[in-house]
Design goal:
The complex is a heterodimer of chains A (291) and B (577). With 291 residues, chain A is an alpha/beta fold. Chain A contains ten helices and eight strands. Classes of the chains: A alpha/beta (291), B alpha/beta (577). β2 of chain A pairs parallel with β16 of chain B.
């Protein structure tokens, strides 16, 4: 049997992205289109949940079910979708402000669950949609609209947080290396459990420091270095590399039971397929418990 | 004539076993064919504090836990003194006389002391501080002339899953307490007229809300622990094997409601439960449900506010919060169930309304309604589940319009997994396909059109909901207006008032948004009006005035954290007419 290759075009929506020319998010969008095509996942079985921000507009540019929700809440929605229908491929997307700022709590708790979803963060170290304020991943000392005397806080380290919070696929991509990014996203989607793809996705309009060139001068791929992805301690150590050398690729990967595997009420298959009618016998039993 | 009703209060500290004693007595009563209502007054402490449970039982339907008590079971010295003033003349105090030494100066005249020398009674059985409760309860069963075998059955069921030896000890304790009371305590003139062939279910409001959600086909319940909503979570997780419901405790209420919206978006009936503070955190997402037209049921069991307020006390102070929850205008329903039985029906109705109109439905309970136990007669299992219009395939060569402009404002929904209905649900304003219109160019024409489409639903919701109904004589001298959990106590007060030849009727309002039809007509025809609310500012009174222009004449507001007593309402009415 000859299997027709699935074309990337099938995953493109009719809406044209609204991002600035040169935005790193284009590579992420391309990466998602490519990964879905390579994995031949049907559009109708994909749900992409996002929050608010430039990057959170992404679901609209993919031919898949999309839920463009509230700022910082893409992960709770994605958790809910997955628990409702485990047959779906569930992706949450957004930016660093959305995921590592206002939504940070959900980030950590979703990873603790090791729920089988993929989280792709377009990390540009700045607030783009609100025109250039400091973000949770902005460097200390950075001059932004909201920090004219320099940012006084140190940045969040999402990779380190993911490693210590229970995520079982922890990776970083770079929009300047589209092929590597597509593969990283593809592997994240294939992974069973919570997968994080933190993408260095330059904001060409508001971040004049962390530019494509700034990253090109620093990034190297963990795959080339034969990094051992089973070794959590080594991964944590790698997650602290930043100033002069920045690793991209998979830091850590583990095969562990997922929340959706373990949840007793999901043992009969997806919730959405369960009959709604409780039945008079069960109703009677439940009422009898009150006498 | 013997009394046909009894009021029991069990007073002690947290950790003394008050709740289990109360529950056991409730089961003894309900298995004796009696109606009952019980209220638990407690504080936010795990051990200590001043806690009591008050239970009133009789053959007729019970509408309040009453005020003064016939029997007090005092579990410590302090509670003995604190509560004895509430015992009626001719009533009695049962207490462990090994531990509690009554101060004769403080004992009101005509209150009968029933000391229980627990060590002596149990000398051949065993020593355990909690056994004193069983001694007191079995003594009370004897004093009320109830069948001790019913109590044995309750205890057998309770310990059935635990150790046989513990159960055996308890059965011996029951016998010892019962026999002691028979030989040593005075007779009391009670005939509760038990019928051992009737077994009445006894539920709390929260259990009824949970039970109703199971029968409504809810398959996803999400919550963050918060008094007084937590017992919905506890009930539903305990039943999850039978119900097949995923019951999820999430990291905060923001996550709770967003998860439930995600689950509902994916096609599963979903509900969340919380109290005022958690509800405040949910508000942004309530608008999200409105904007994305995702059905969801939100229970807010109100407690005393503002802020942390009175975590273990009751109030009806969140009506305005619910009305104003989230920015902007969107269609929504607010329902306030009145009784435990009504909690069951209201939650089923809420799921249907949420699905039919693709809206958030808020259910306003309160601590009193959520946590008090009430006997019910029966529940109807024949309620229909109406999931509204759902598309399982796009039978056209055109693109699916998730938010299609329709006459009713309701556009058929599709769930992810459906092959040719892929769409975006967006919190941003969007067109009928779901395409965002907010960012690149804001199309004011489409904005107006889609806003009208969504808001059109309200007209149809209002039409579908039943009109307000007046209970009692149409020509009454006074109409009492109430909402939510005060239904029962107002009902009882009116019964007493009518027996005292006061001509009073009752307008109880269940649907707050949209405000029920017919309220203005009823009130305009009333001779005089009084509204009763457990809040400071008279939130329903203001809502009625805002929506109908009608100003209610008199008010009785209470915000001390305790539920209303019939006497408070009667006193107010007697001042007026």
């Amino acid at each position: 049997m000859v299997v027709e290759p699935v074309k990337i075009e099938e995953y493109k929506s009719e809406t044209t992205p609204t991002w600035c020319p040169g935005c790193g998010d284009f590579a992420v969008l391309r990466g998602i289109h490519t990964a879905l095509a390579r994995l031949k996942i049907k559009s109708e079985n994909v749900v992409i949940s996002s929050g608010i921000g430039c990057s959170s507009n992404l679901p609209g540019f993919v031919n898949a079910y999309g839920f463009h929700g509230l700022h910082g809440r893409s992960l709770p929605v994605a958790n809910g979708v997955k628990l409702a229908n485990t047959d779906l491929t569930v992706i949450a997307t957004g930016g660093d402000g959305d995921g590592y700022g206002i939504g940070l709590g959900h980030f950590i708790h979703s990873m603790r669950r090791n729920i089988n979803i993929t989280y792709i963060v377009m990390n540009n170290q700045i607030y783009g949609l609100t025109t250039g304020q400091a973000s949770p991943t902005s460097e200390k000392g950075m001059l932004t609209k909201s920090t004219p005397s320099g940012l006084l806080e140190v940045p969040v380290n999402p990779i380190a947080l993911a490693l210590i919070s229970g995520a079982t696929y922890v990776s970083r991509g770079f929009s300047g290396n589209a092929d590597h990014l597509s593969t990283t996203i593809e592997n994240a989607l294939s992974h069973k459990g919570f997968s994080l793809v933190d993408v260095l996705s330059p904001c060409v309009t508001y971040n004049k420091i962390q530019t494509y060139q700034w990253f090109r001068d620093r990034v190297y791929t963990l795959e080339d270095e034969k990094h051992n992805t089973d070794d959590l301690k080594q991964a944590i150590s790698k997650s602290y590399e930043w100033e002069s050398k920045i690793p991209i690729g998979v830091f850590y990967k583990a095969d562990k039971p997922t929340y959706d595997d373990d949840e007793p009420a999901l043992q009969n298959g997806p919730l959405v397929n369960q009959p709604l009618d409780t039945g008079k016998n069960i109703a009677k039993q439940l009422l009898d418990e009150f006498t | 004539m013997p009394k046909d009703e009894v009021i029991l209060r069990v007073g002690g500290a947290a950790g003394d076993g008050i709740a289990s004693t109360g529950e056991s007595f409730a089961k003894i009563c309900s298995r004796s064919g009696l109606h009952l209502l019980a209220y638990n007054s407690y504080q936010s402490v795990i051990r200590g504090g001043f806690i009591y449970l008050q239970l009133r039982a009789g053959r007729k339907k019970i509408y309040s836990h009453g005020n003064k008590v016939d029997f007090l079971i005092a579990l410590n010295q302090l509670e003995f003194q604190r509560n004895i003033v509430d015992v009626v003349p001719g009533g009695a105090v049962l207490y462990n006389s090994d531990k509690i030494k009554p101060d004769s100066d403080q004992i009101p005249k005509d209150v009968i002391l029933c000391p229980l020398p627990v060590n002596e009674i149990l000398k051949d059985i065993g020593r355990n501080p909690i056994l004193q409760n069983t001694v007191a309860l079995s003594s009370l069963v004897q004093l009320l002339n109830l069948d001790v075998d019913v109590m044995n059955g309750v205890i057998r069921d309770y310990f059935g899953k635990k150790k046989q030896s513990v159960m055996d000890i308890n059965l011996k304790v029951i016998e010892a307490g019962y026999e002691y009371a028979k030989s040593n305590l005075p007779d009391f003139d009670f005939d509760l007229n038990p019928d051992y062939n009737i077994k009445r279910p006894v539920l709390t409001g929260n259990q009824a809300l949970g039970f109703g959600s199971i029968l409504a086909g809810c398959k996803f319940y999400c919550a963050y622990p918060m008094t007084p909503a937590s017992s919905i979570l506890h009930y539903l997780i305990a039943q999850s094997k039978k119900s097949g419901m995923v019951v999820k405790q999430a990291e905060d209420e923001i996550s709770v409601i967003n998860m439930a919206i995600g689950s509902s978006f994916a096609g599963v009936r979903s509900m969340v439960g919380t109290s005022g503070g958690g509800f405040a955190l949910m508000t942004e997402a309530i608008g999200l449900a409105g904007q994305t037209e995702t059905p969801i049921v939100i229970i807010n069991s109100m407690r005393g506010g503002p802020s942390t307020g009175l975590p273990t006390k009751t109030e009806q102070g969140d009506l305005f919060q619910a009305i104003g929850a989230s920015q902007g205008d969107f269609p929504k329903v607010i329902i306030a169930p009145s009784t435990v039985e009504d909690c069951y029906y209201s939650v089923i109705e809420s799921f249907n309304l949420a699905d039919q109109f693709q809206i958030p439905v808020m259910v306003l309970s309160d601590l009193f309604l959520s946590e008090h136990m009430e006997s019910i007669t029966d529940l109807d299992f024949n309620s229909t589940i109406d999931r509204g219009e759902i598309v399982t395939s796009n039978n056209s060569d055109k693109l699916y319009k998730r938010f299609k402009y329709t006459d009713t404002g309701v556009s058929p929904r599709a769930f992810p997994g459906t092959s040719d209905t892929v769409f975006q649900a967006s919190s941003d304003e969007h067109d009928d396909y779901g395409n965002i219109i907010s960012d690149v160019f804001t199309d004011s024409e489409i904005r107006t059109k889609i806003m009208l489409k969504r808001m059109r639903k309200m007209k149809f919701i209002e039409e579908q909901l039943p009109s307000a109904k007046l209970e009692g004589p149409a020509d009454a001298d006074l109409t009492i207006v109430s909402w939510g959990s005060t239904y029962n106590v107002v009902h009882e007060a009116i019964e007493i008032l009518q027996n005292n030849s006061k001509n009073v009727n009752h307008l109880h309002i269940k649907y707050l948004i949209p405000l029920q039809k017919g309220i203005k007509e009823i009130l305009s025809n009333s001779k005089d009006t009084l509204i009763i609310e457990a809040n400071y500012s008279g939130q329903l009174s203001k809502l009625i005035s805002m929506e109908t222009g009608f100003q209610i004449n008199h008010t009785l507001f209470k915000y001390d954290g305790e539920p209303f007593y019939p006497e408070q309402i009667i006193d107010k009415v007697e001042d007026l007419i």
